[in-house]
Amino acid sequence: MQYKGLSFYFALLALVLFMGTAALADETRQGKSLVPGVGETQQGGGVVPSTDETRQSKGVTAGASETHQGKVLAAGAGKLTMEDTMAKMQYTHEVASNADIMCEGKKCGLSDVKMGDMVQVTIDKQGDKTVFTKIEVKKANSPS
């Protein structure tokens, strides 16, 4: 009789852990962050602006650069918000005024970059800001 009760509690514990993990994964997939105010999305799907850049690229120092690939979440007003290919990290940085932006191999502007486009970006440190200095765009509706 004791063992039936014990197995019931283990089954209940397993169910609670499974449901908690599924709920956390769903929140992460929807763009919500464990850190309040970072990368959260509103019901309308827009990215909540923050006073600081959403994610600082770690290890970017003056004169050094990083390259990232991912999908555009928002672009405009001199900023670009993207998520990495695994949809785990979100980056929001200003786009340098002299940034090299290429759409399908042709020169274009930030206004041509749309939500859902795949990008490869180069991030550099300019002064005290981390900025996108190069953006290569593969349009979402273009054939592979």
- What is the H/E order? HEEEEEE
Beta-strand segment tally: 6
Q: Approximately how much helix is present in the residues? A: 10-25%
Query: Quaternary state, please?
Result: single chain
Radius of gyration from CA coordinates: 20 Å
Question: Could you give a short description of this structure?
Answer:
The chain is 19% helix and 37% strand.
Would you give an account of this structure?
- This protein has a domain at 65-138: OB fold (Dihydrolipoamide Acetyltransferase, E2P) (Beta Barrel).
- Helix content is 19%, strand content 37%.
- The protein has 1 helix and 6 strands, in the order αββββββ.
- The chain has a 5-stranded mixed β-barrel.
Task: Considering the chains and any ligands shown, give keywords for the structure.
alpha+beta; single chain; 144 residues; five-stranded mixed beta barrel; OB fold (Dihydrolipoamide Acetyltransferase, E2P)
Task: Tell me the layout of helices and strands.
Elements: H1 2-29, E1 65-76, E2 79-84, E3 90-103, E4 106-107, E5 118-126, E6 129-138
